[in-house]
Specification:
With 123 residues, the chain is an all-beta fold. Helices cover 0% and strands 50% of the residues. It contains no helices and eleven strands. It has strands spanning 3-8, 10-12, 18-25, 33-39, 46-52, 58-60, 68-73, 78-83, 92-99, 110-111, 117-121. The strands form two sheets. Strands 2, 4, 5, 6, 9, 10 and 11 form a seven-stranded mixed beta sheet that branches. A four-stranded antiparallel beta sheet has the order 1-3-8-7, with no helix packed on it. The mean pLDDT is 95.
Length: 123
């Protein structure tokens, strides 16, 4: 069983930056892919970005291309999300999640979601 714990996020004005991290515990990571799924009030979950633990390959939604990046620290079993040029439509709860099966860009392909962190972009 894997436990994912997020930290970071917060409130920022449009155009600003925030970062977040997700620490995994419970077992080692090797063939796993960890990602971020966000959900805004009244909306369906939306895939944001993900990274393969073994290869470092990344996957991202078109909506965050060029603005969000993801990285990892193998020793700390931690994934980092850097969010730049934030927009009001980025406002959501961001969940760290582990890929299970299916398309990398489909929220339903992820299991073991963390509790989530709030990201609010507002002037």
């Amino acid at each position: 069983q894997v436990l994912l714990v997020e930290s970071g996020g917060g409130l920022v004005q449009p155009g600003g930056s925030l970062n977040a991290s997700c620490e995994a515990s419970g077992r080692s990571l090797r063939w796993d892919t960890l990602g971020w799924i966000r959900q805004a009030p009244g909306r369906e979950p939306e895939f944001v970005i993900a990274i393969s633990w073994i290869s470092g390959d990344t996957y991202f939604a078109d909506s965050v291309k060029g603005r969000f990046t993801i990285s990892k620290n193998n020793a700390k079993k931690t994934v980092y999300l850097q969010m730049n040029d934030l927009r009001p439509e980025d406002t959501a709860i961001y969940h760290c999640a582990m890929y299970d099966i299916g398309y990398y860009t489909a929220p339903s392909s992820y299991k073991h979601w963390g509790q989530g962190i709030q990201v609010t972009v507002s002037s």
